[in-house]
Design goal:
This protein is an all-alpha fold and 117 residues long. The protein contains six helices and no strands.
């Protein structure tokens, strides 16, 4: 469930940032498109993982401790739950996002298809 929400956030932020770049700097965007794709993808991946890290950590804890309820786990972990694994999660998703969107952009150019909305 959280991966669906994370993906929705990820794509929405990426599309809105790219749209903003295209509208504000259309001439410069054409010249430096890979740089703008990297900026938008790293930003979108980081924000999506930041927002969805807590619920994903809670699900992982529940799988590791099936005998405890979700409320017991939240009371036990408190605010540590929100930052548990956050750094590596944000790093991973920002790199993954950059590689994904750069690949999608270049595959779109190969087949002469615009992939951004």
């Amino acid at each position: 469930m959280t991966s669906i929400v994370s993906t929705c956030i990820w794509f929405t932020i990426y599309e809105s940032v790219i749209k903003n770049f295209k509208e504000n700097d259309s001439q410069l965007y054409q010249q430096k498109e890979p740089m703008y794709v990297i900026i938008a993808s790293v930003l979108s991946g980081s924000v999506a993982s930041f927002l969805c890290n807590g619920p994903e950590a809670l699900v992982a804890l529940k799988q590791a401790h099936p005998e405890q309820t979700m409320m017991q786990l939240m009371k036990q972990e408190k605010f540590r739950l929100l930052r548990k694994g956050l750094g590596i999660n944000m790093y991973y998703h920002s790199i993954h996002s950059a590689m994904f969107f750069l690949t999608v952009t270049y595959v779109g150019k190969i087949f002469d298809v615009e992939v951004e909305g």
